[in-house]
Design brief:
The protein contains three helices and four strands. With 111 residues, it is α+β, with helices and mostly antiparallel strands. It has a domain of 59 residues. Strands 1-2 form a two-stranded antiparallel ribbon. A two-stranded antiparallel ribbon has the order 3-4. It starts with 11 loop residues before the first strand and ends in an 18-residue tail after the last helix. The N terminus is likely disordered. Bound molecules: zinc ion (ZN). Zinc ion binds next to strand 4 and helix 3.
Length: 111
């Protein structure tokens, strides 16, 4: 049994199915970063950045700063077992197919 430094060694579980992942077992770490995209365009540039920021703050006035931060940037780290990892990857690649993998084959349309 290896203990990797000060890493938290709480019993790892698969984020999705809850299966226990004892140390040394095959597991997959999924790191997801979700952040607000910026394409270089500012809406209503005439107003200047200060005005825009003011507006933004007005918009979000009263909302929880933590929530606001989440809207801009959020990071998840998930641990998955092998089979959930496989399904997860499939769903990321084919989100439109939904969780039940309805594979319809419309005439002549590939992909
Ligand atoms: Zn799992």
């Amino acid at each position: 049994m290896k203990n990797k430094g000060s890493e938290e060694v709480s019993q790892a579980r698969c984020f999705r199915c809850g299966k226990e992942l004892p140390p040394g077992s095959l597991s997959y770490v999924v790191n997801i970063e979700v952040f607000a995209g910026f394409d270089g365009y500012l809406i209503e540039p005439k107003e200047g950045l200060d005005e825009q920021l003011k507006k933004l703050f007005e918009q979000v006035e009263g909302s929880n700063p933590e929530e606001l931060e989440k809207e801009v940037y959020e990071e998840f780290t998930l641990v998955l077992c092998k089979s959930c990892r496989d399904r997860f990857i499939e769903e990321i690649k084919h989100p439109w197919e939904g969780p039940f993998k309805i594979r319809t084959h419309p005439n002549g349309i590939l992909h």
